[in-house]
Amino acid sequence: MTAFTPDDTARLADALDQAIADGAAPGGVIALGTRDASPRFLTAGRIALELGDLAPDEHILYDLASLTKVTATWPLVCQAIDTGLLDRTTLIRELLPHMDGPAPSGKATIGQLLTHTAGLKASTRLDLYRGGETPLHELMLREDLETKPGTHRYINRGYILLGLALAHVTGRHLADLGRDLWDRIGMTATCYGPLARTSQVAPTEQRIPGAPRMWGIPHDDNATLLGGAAGHAGVFSTAHDLARYADRLFDPDADLHAWLRASMLPVAPIEPGLDRGLSWIVAPGPVAYHHGFTGTSLYLAPDTGRYLAICTNAVYGSEVRSRIAPLRALALKIISAT
């Protein structure tokens, strides 16, 4: 295992402080560590203006947003493949309730959906499907493709379908599947929303001036319309639990360790130096990582046994991608170093 150096830790702490000073987020927590060692947690700022000077710690619940894809859907699909419920070549149509007629999007395979290469329609507004009698999966599967299958295009639609499929083939609610998964790993705080508005939950965006801030409900509207539990978003977790998750993924005796290794094989290019594996982005190092729109990130370097998790509510009042970009870039640079 390759431990983080004091300089690594100092630079990450400075970058987190600078992000907060720049208004990227009211505060945040970084978990960093190596396999089988106690993680270290860097904290700064405060949870939210509504909570005064209350500082965040490793037990504050943050909306993971798209980290849901790699902390819920990806491991659940991997487990379903291991038990024979599906495989990477299975068509998504075969895993959802029967429907008659053409279904262009239903020809997408599980592997294509995991790697964002199915060619599905990019925009997903589930609110536009309200008011009818046709089941959601039929509406989505009947839509035409937008791009040729095999080309990478990051979208949420495929993971929404994966969440619906997991619930159908298991006969269980997605939130219950997640709960069983996280309990086995020891991620006792991780859960799908909605959650109570307490000081243990970091609020996110104020959508309308003068209205209450989003707090304990997924920032993603589609996840909220699906009751809070969806394949693409909706999970809340802590820096402590993300560190526990990383440690489990590094355990060679754990089933998900082999899946992590397999998922880091490049499938589709994203840009020079970055490829998409199964769910994860793959960078030189090798490193697997993923971001969440709300201001969260998880980085894994299994060869060195190092991991980094960033928990912030950067969507609280800023443009997430630009203002938190320096912190994320530094995290990737440090985790990629050998």
UniProtKB/TrEMBL annotation:
Q: Indicate the secretion signal residues.
A: none
An MF annotation (GO) of this entry: hydrolase activity
**What is the protein name given in its UniProt record?**
Serine hydrolase domain-containing protein
Q: What keywords does the record list, in alphabetical order? A: Hydrolase
- Organism expressing this protein natively: Streptomyces macrosporus
Annotated ranges, domain Beta-lactamase-related: 15-332
UniProt-listed Gene3D superfamilies: DD-peptidase/beta-lactamase superfamily
Q: What is the lineage of its organism?
A: Bacteria, Bacillati, Actinomycetota, Actinomycetes, Kitasatosporales
Give the domain of life: Bacteria
Q: Which PANTHER family match?
A: BETA-LACTAMASE-RELATED, BETA-LACTAMASE-RELATED DOMAIN-CONTAINING PROTEIN
